[in-house]
Model the fold of this input.
Amino acid sequence: MQHFVAPSSIVRRIWGSADTILFIFAGAAAEFALNKAVDWLYFTGRLPSDPLGRLFSTVDYARRIVFADQAAAEQAIDTIAAIHGAVEAKRGHAIPDWAYRDVLFMLIAYSMRAFEVLERPLTAAEREEIVEVFGRVGRRMGISELPTGYAAWRLAREQHLAQNTLLSSYTEDLYRQYERHLGWARFQLLRGVQGMVVPPSVRGWLGLPDGAWLRPPLALYRATRSFALSQWAKNAMLPAEYRDRIKDLDAQPAEVTPPPSRGSCPFHRAGAPTGLRRRAA
Done:
């Protein structure tokens, strides 16, 4: 059986852990709130009503791609693409090309940053592999002008951050929704995690703390995560009703649940990466 992502890949290690997944989406939720195309998140109206549910829907699809065989992964990507084409048709215009690349760049950037905050520095080969894997996802969806290596991606990423971020009324509303659904204490924890993983420019736009106060508990977590006690850290990040879903993020690939239906495509509904779709030929 041909896998879309090799079983030994660093990408599988990153996306097979609840720890790194939660940090990835914390960072992406911050950055996309500043994206100039964030209005697309509001078109369906589902993000403000259920940002946490949309997060888990996004995770389900991303893991389906990472852990699937080649054919199943491509089918999942094509489904996402088709749904986004329908959303664009309903709104009457297309999401900008640069917005699609921004989303893919976020997946790459926060996969790297979350792993390095929680685990260790990535090797040069691992960085190249992460860019290559998500590049294949993007090319399958028809996203144009994608960089083909880490150095080119890093340059393009800096250009996109400089050109495509803006503090807006959508930014403010998204953060109000995050706080409303998380509660004040968890919202402060979210902001701390975001401050640890986002680029300095994003931290400055949003007025995020640098997350220094989280380093001692994070060190404790690293020391205890091989024990059941480590679950406390993951549970602390989201309300109690999501605890079972958090545990599921640590499931082995064979345990991953079936993909969501066509109507639950995450990328235009979630509070994190959104907006990918396949270009018409």
The first helix runs from residue 10 to 15. The radius of gyration is 17 Å.
